[in-house]
UniProtKB/TrEMBL annotation:
Stored Pfam families: 3HCDH, 3HCDH_N
UniProt cross-references to SUPFAM superfamilies, sorted A to Z: 6-phosphogluconate dehydrogenase C-terminal domain-like, NAD(P)-binding Rossmann-fold domains
Domain of life assignment: Bacteria
3-hydroxyacyl-CoA dehydrogenase C-terminal domain span: 186-282
Binding site for NAD(+): 10-15, 33, 92, 97, 119, 143, 274
Domain 3-hydroxyacyl-CoA dehydrogenase NAD binding residue range list: 7-183
Protein name in UniProt: 3-hydroxybutyryl-CoA dehydrogenase
Keyword vocabulary terms for this entry: NAD, Oxidoreductase
The species this protein was found in: Desulfonema magnum
Length: 283
């Protein structure tokens, strides 16, 4: 199936990154969010990153303008009527995602694939909100989207081969390397990553080490590009907690219980980089 116009629901850190890579691959993009200020902030972030690429000589000014020219912003979800493929990258909240999929199913042409960037909500549950479960799939990008090479593609039980192939090919056209996962809690990426982050929070909770010590051990001892607590701050502690809850709920296994300290930070509004404070402070 040919995709020319690519819709993105959500202009936050994942949504604007996805919109950027789609526009860079030559697609026309509609980036949608609920408020003007959200889409403006998303577009400003894309503009900043593209300008940096121009400064570094990785792209010309004309190429930057062409990429930006391919991105339309929208605050009305009905604009998705002209998209050939939509990826939802809204907040990691099941009720919200269900409402978005119900709406998209009403608005979009019947042939349109509805993908979700969910980090852990079951694809099958999202698919049942629509009358096209065979066209619903997980397309899970990693943060920061323009840099990270992986797209985890998750098949729901009802996802068709055609939907899978179109999503796979699209990811390759974005310059990414796709990996296939089946629809179990946390899929592959977060089933492995989040218990490690949660264990790092337990190390802090049990005073095994300071945040700096914990992150230094994992950075220099295991060659991770950043320590697990710094990474949790990048992902967002609310998202980390939501994923741990999904793992715990999905497997009913105590090894996935979220650390009380993680919950305490989230309750205090210390969500990481986006609020200026998480395990570290950001000015
Ligand atoms: N957005 C876009 N580009 C960014 C960026 C951002 N937020 N942060 C860094 N970059 C770019 C820089 O501009 C730089 O680009 P050039 O090579 O063109 O100069 C490049 O990335 C390297 O950046 P830095 O030199 O500043 O720093 P670094 O080498 O430490 O890399 C990093 C930064 C890429 C974030 C690296 O630390 C890293 O890979 N960290 C781990 C990230 C990770 O694990 N992500 C997955 C999170 S899990 C997830 O997303 C799934 C989920 O569902 C929770």
């Amino acid at each position: 199936m040919e995709v020319k116009t690519f819709g993105v629901i959500g202009a936050g850190q994942m949504g604007n990154g996805i919109a950027q890579v789609a526009a860079m691959s030559g697609l026309n993009v509609i980036m949608n969010d609920i408020k003007d200020e959200f889409v403006e902030r998303g577009l400003a972030n894309i503009t900043k990153l593209l300008s940096k690429s121009v400064d570094k000589g990785k792209m010309t000014g004309e190429e930057k303008d062409a990429v930006l020219g391919r991105i339309k912003t929208s605050v009305d979800v009905k604009d998705m009527a002209s998209a050939d493929f939509v990826v939802e990258a809204a907040t990691e909240n099941e009720t919200l995602k269900f409402a978005i999929f119900k709406k998209l199913d009403e608005i979009c042409e019947p042939h349109v694939i509805l993908a979700t960037n969910t980090s852990s909500i079951p694809i099958g549950r999202i698919a049942t909100q629509t009358k096209r479960p065979e066209k619903v799939i997980g397309m899970h990008f990693m943060n920061p989207v323009p840099v990270m090479k992986l797209v985890e593609i998750i098949r729901g039980l009802a996802t068709s081969e055609e939907t899978f192939k179109t999503t796979w090919d699209l990811s390759v056209n974005f310059g990414k390397t796709p990996a296939e996962a089946n629809d179990y809690p946390g899929f592959i990426a977060n089933r492995i990553l989040l218990p490690m982050i949660n264990e790092a929070v337990f190390c802090l909770y049990h005073s095994v080490g300071t945040p700096e010590a914990i992150d230094t051990v994992m950075k220099l001892g295991m060659n991770h590009p950043m320590g697990p607590l710094a990474l949790a701050d990048l992902i967002g502690l609310d998202t980390c907690l939501a994923i741990m809850e999904t793992l715990y709920e999905g497997f009913k296994d105590s090894k996935y219980r979220p650390c009380p300290l993680l919950r305490k930070y989230v309750e205090a509004g210390w969500l990481g980089r986006k609020t200026g404070r998480g395990f570290y402070e950001y000015k």
